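Batch manifest, entry 17 of 40.
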Amino acid sequence: MKNSSIPLYLRQFYIDRPYRRMHYGEQAFHELLKYLDVDTIDIEVLTWNERGMSFWKKLNFKERSVYMRYN
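Output type: structure tokens
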């Protein structure tokens, strides 16, 4: 039974550079989903991180808002 009452927030997800583009990130994320038994996870991706944005979109994440800051 999936736990979907409260979405989880994934703060950091990192694959060391030498191991990127080998599908380890995708495999690790799917294992994490199974382990946590959830169907909703929220993340933030920095706007300059084009590779990160592409990675998450490939895993079917959809943009829901834009976080903005004035300083």
